[in-house]
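quick one, 357 residues, struct below
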Amino acid sequence: LNREAKIITAVAKDITEQKIAEQELETAYLRLRNAHKIAKLGYWSRDLNSELSQWSEEMYTIFGYSPTEFTPTLRNIERAFHPADKEMLLNPFTEELKSGKIQSFEHRIITASNDVRWVHQEVQLILDENGTPITIEGTLQDITESKQYQQQLAHSNERFALAMQASNEMIWDIDHKNQTVSRGRGYEGSFNYDTSEPFIKHNSWFKKVHPDDLPALWESLQTSFEDKDKKYWEMEYRLYAENNTIAYFVDRCYILRDEDGNPLRSIGSALDVTNSRQQLEQIKRQNTNLREIAWLQSHVIRAPLSKIMGLVYLTELNSEENSKDEILEMIGTAANELDEVIHEITHKINTFENIES
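---
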């Protein structure tokens, strides 16, 4: 400002690039902060000669405090650790951490509302130019939900494994993504199959299927898996046991699909119904014998019996000695016929009783 000359001199600097850089930096910071919230991920650091840590905003959120309520000193952080996991905080640095590598571990914390939450930490030491640790820093992520899912999945798998052992059926599980099948050990002794193997037409289980049933069995399975609307499959087929006898199986499964209808997993069970099939065959034979016995009793046995009755009547009417001898001979023949029929009925009844026993 030159008052005597009444002149004002001004200098202006173009700071557009600086402003743009500041705006981009602010935008990046907001995005990073939102990402931390979405991922439930916090950042912390602490100088090794200090008891006080520096926490990001999300760190306070995870622990359930506000910056005005909680001071992240070592003592306060120790109090927030689950009692069973405090050794992780108190243990000295491992050799891996001292070498500058990142170390990962999981533990539990107690929040401000006294809730127990699982967190995953990744920690590293910052070394100076001489290799001396000067700062420790890390990230902390809330993994409570995924931990609960893992525990539920572990319990579910454990119950499934117990069910496979306890069931009198063979439980099986097909992973369609990896094309593998897992089976329970229910019939392992009788059929000697692999409990885990590729799901292919000639694996250890399908090799034991009767050759006349295998093509239809494999085609039925593949057709069901390819039908995006089908959720259930069932079929009966024959297998050869280790002693080379034929066994009958009823096999069925439920097909789990993704939103596009593609199969993800198929959970099924195979039941040995050989005994029931044998009993059914016995019942059929018994019914056949019963029908034959009924026919013999109602038709065949009546012929010789009628002959005997008629001939007896003739002997009463005929007084001639020669005629009586002939009639008695015919009565004997008819009696023998009747005896044969009775023996046949007795044989069928004995066969019927043997089948029942």
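The mean pLDDT is 82.
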